[in-house]
Specification:
Elements: H1 4-10, E1 30-34, H2 42-47, H3 50-54, E2 55-63, E3 66-69, H4 76-81, E4 84-87, E5 98-108, E6 121-126, E7 155-160, E8 177-184, E9 200-205, E10 222-225, E11 231-238, E12 248-252, H5 259-267, E13 274-275
Parallel strand pairs: 5-13
Antiparallel strand pairs: 1-2, 1-4, 2-3, 3-6, 4-5, 5-6, 7-8, 7-10, 8-9, 9-12, 10-11, 11-12
Amino acid sequence: MLHILLLAAAIQAAEPEQEQEGETGASPWQAEIYSNFTGWTPEELAERDPWDLAHRCGGSLIANGWVLTAAHCIDQAKVDKGYRVRLGADYLDNDEGVTFRIDRMVRHADWNKAEHLYDIALIHYVADKDTHVGSAGPIAPIPLYEGPPLEAGVDVYASGWGQAEEGKDKGFQAELTAVDLRTVDCADYPQYEGKTREYQMCATGRTPGDDADTCTGDSGGPLVLDDPQVLVGVVNWGIGCYRADSAGVYLRIDNEHFRDWIARAMAAAPTVNELR
């Protein structure tokens, strides 16, 4: 049964309703951000499938029409080109889910690409002529965490279609995967000395020697508290992937970090695409 939110979004109707009893889905808030470009060269298509070439980032559905992601995943040029959002998909290689056009975005005005600062953005999506209601899993927004900043030692998990191994142009995973993580102190990792801020946190595998991690293509996706399942972070960056004695860096979502920015960004005029 298709979740009522999918139908509501497809016709741009009312606010999403609660997930219907009996429906399941590990990450019904998971979103994909992808390019609508189709003019791949034969050489490119010989190496990678169109869905793989088009994939850009992950995101989290937080309200009807709104997906939270990383600032480096979206800009006005991508909106103008017709970039899209996919919801309700586990697999990207079989046309699962329902897709929408991104009609506007709001990026943090202090985002700094070189230093990975304020890496947060919101995208707004709408149905268009290419939106179709096909094979899709349950779709539901995830609540934002309302507590104090997480300390080290908290069990969380991230999900996405990112690369399964480190390296340039390795290709993305067709199946949505989730990785169990635990928050850690970024200061415990010398490679991040002077490179993280108080509104960022680090997370790594839950057991010693565990190289669990997020990677390229997971950016913008959700970092979720184990219990209750609420959004506590956004996948931002890291030095490599799956390395020993390392961790990924995530932007915090909590009572002291970015909840107010998210509310103001969603309430901003449609002409606003940057907000401090």
